[in-house]
From TrEMBL:
GO terms for molecular function: sigma factor antagonist activity. Residues 1-13 have a biased composition (Gly residues). Residues 19-138 form the Anti-sigma K factor RskA C-terminal domain. Residues 1-29 are annotated as: Disordered. GO terms for cellular component: plasma membrane. GO terms for biological process: regulation of translation. This is Anti-sigma factor. It comes from Streptomyces malaysiensis subsp. samsunensis.
């Protein structure tokens, strides 16, 4: 039935594409709300640094929420078939923390998983789909600010 997203009266062949666009838009709004929640946390602390390519990265950490957000500015698109991957650094051991969409010159994402005992975060360029461990040196490694 149309109420479940199936074809309905007055819908055309373009409806699935419109539905996909709406879902992507909803995901972007939800991601922006997550980032805003971390940025607005009463205990949020930030640290910024310049990446190897000249772009700027900022990590914002909320120990109370046990979350961190990463914001990038001036970020070029990665090479074809590659993606930016975020990492937590737990005493020098890198733990995957999600993939970052970089379709524009700026990007923001909440790192996947709990901050826990992590003391820093990094960004690498990995094969599309990401990696279990970094395959290259980080573009940036940002030490978390003190609580």
């Amino acid at each position: 039935p149309a109420a479940w997203g199936g074809p309905g009266v007055g819908q055309h062949g373009g409806a699935p594409a419109a539905g996909d666009a709406a879902r992507r838009s909803e995901r972007r709004v939800a991601a922006a709300e997550e980032v805003t929640r971390v940025l607005a946390a009463p205990d949020a602390r930030s640290r910024s640094g310049r990446m190897a390519d000249g772009s700027t990265g900022t990590v914002v950490v909320s120990r109370g929420l046990n979350q961190a957000a990463f914001l990038a500015s001036g970020l070029p698109e990665p090479p074809a078939g590659r993606i930016y991957q975020l990492w937590f650094s737990d005493g020098g051991t890198m733990r995957p923390a999600g993939l970052m969409d970089s379709s524009g010159r700026s990007a923001a994402a909440v790192l996947s998983g709990a901050v826990g005992k992590a003391s820093a975060m990094g960004v690498t360029i990995e094969p599309a789909g990401g990696s279990k461990a970094p395959t290259s040196d980080p573009l940036v490694l940002l030490t978390f600010p003190p609580a």
